[in-house]
Amino acid sequence: MSAEISHHWPVPPRDGYTVDDLLTLSDLPPHTELIDGSLVFVSPQRDFHSIAIDLLVNGLRSTAPPELKVRREMTVVVDKRNGPEPDVSVVRAAAARSRAQTYFQARDVLLAVEVVSPDSEARDSDTKPHKYAGAGIPYFWRVEMTGEDERPVVHVFELDKVSRAYVSTGIFQDRLKISVPFDIDIDLTEIDKL
Cα–Cα–Cα angle for 39, 76, 57, nearest 5°? Predict the structure, then answer.
């Protein structure tokens, strides 16, 4: 006689989850996000995802001015029903109040970066940029893996404040050299050494 395995799935509240739920529910898997009141669980990530994040975090930290901080995989509170987790964020230093904090308010985020994975392609290309733009985050990057060399290609966007939508300002493959939100120069080919 074998023991039955039972699963206990959380039953969502009638009106969906809130950011307060996301921040206080116990036993959620790591990197759970809240999109439109629904919990989104992240699949195991490819090696590219991890090293692309490392490359960008290191590059951003090497040039970020002291009034800004670079963070990886932290919840950004967009509104009551949305708490996405960008892979990389650049935030105002004053918003980094405690080593124990688990989120930032969207108003404190200058740049949100998403490294696209197969399971997150639609969220990273459409849903999350739409949420970030609506929240007024000035800059957004979408990072994808190129074909044969498996290097990152970075799609850079800037917020059009009138339409509250992102406008493409460039696509970068070997070197990411831009002047906003601060002077940034990242050799994307360095991923080969990670």
Answer: 115
Rounded to whole angstroms, the maximal C-alpha distance in the chain is 66
Q: Which residues pair with 139 in a beta bridge?
A: 111, 158
Nearest to 136 by CA among 161, 116, 104: 161
* CA angle, 27 then 143 then 190, to 5°: 105
**Beta 109-115 vs 88-92: how paired, if at all?**
antiparallel
Give the length of the chain: 194
This prediction has a pTM of 0.94
Asked if residue 58 lies in contact with residue 85, where contact means CB atoms within 8 angstroms, the answer is no
DSSP letters, 84-124, are ---SEEEEEGGG---TT--EEEGGGEEEEEEE--GGGHHII
- The pLDDT tens digits along the chain (194 residues) read 555 666 676 788 999 999 999 999 988 999 999 999 999 998 889 999 999 999 999 999 999 999 999 999 999 999 999 999 999 999 999 999 999 999 999 999 999 999 999 999 999 999 999 999 999 999 999 999 988 889 999 999 999 999 999 999 999 999 999 999 999 999 999 999 99
Among all chains, which residue has been given the structure tokens 């708490």?
83
CB 43 within 8 A of CB 32: no
